[in-house]
Amino acid sequence: MRGARLAILIILLGLAGAGFQAGLVSKAGLGTWVAALLTLAIFSFLYRDNPVYKLAEHIFIGIAAGYFVALEYWNVFLPNLWKPLVAGLEHIEYSPLPHFPNMILLIPFALGILLFTRFFPRVAWLSRWSMAAMIGSYSGLAIIGALQGDLVAQIRANMVPLYSREALTAFGNDGTESLLFGLLELLRNPLIIVGLLTTLIYFFFSREHKGGLGVAAKIGIWFLMISFGASFGYTVMSRVSLLIGRLHFLLSDWLGIVR
Known about the structure:
By secondary structure, the chain is mainly α.
């Protein structure tokens, strides 16, 4: 399997190089052909798992990993750690104690070095300090971001009046369209409030869902299913849009059938 993937890669690179050297393929055309062939290689998984798909998958993962490493090196490591440290060492002071600007950056620098101890079994446990610092800091930032961006925003969005002034104004206007719009506006806030309360009741397990509590929990299930269905539909729609984009690329940029 691995030999077949390697042979396919060598053949494709050889054909591309020969066409480029002979002037039959331009740089833009070569990029289009590579993108088209990789797209078809990914689509080949619809038939079954095969070496061509594996090759395209490995190329994608390798390029993505390499791009991420280069991005982190040039945009994070150099400007935020290495260059400030080097600049600080040029202004080091030894009296009364060794000190230089940005000395605090030695801590993340040391933690970053400790991560590489994973390659040495005897001292691999030292990398746990770096992992603990990263997981703890990112968890704290994620919690704050979730509270500010999701929880607080959701609570604020659900603190609405039962009927809005715009709904009452639209409902009082003449005309069928205004009447329909006003009716929908009148139902919007009550539906939000009922959906919020019944959904919360569904997740209230301290009491058995019987009687009025059971009816409210069932209504909450309906709201949950509608929400999940809408989210799933939106996800499918976005994936279909990606598929249309790749098909348009194949038929337009590559084959020139669609203009």
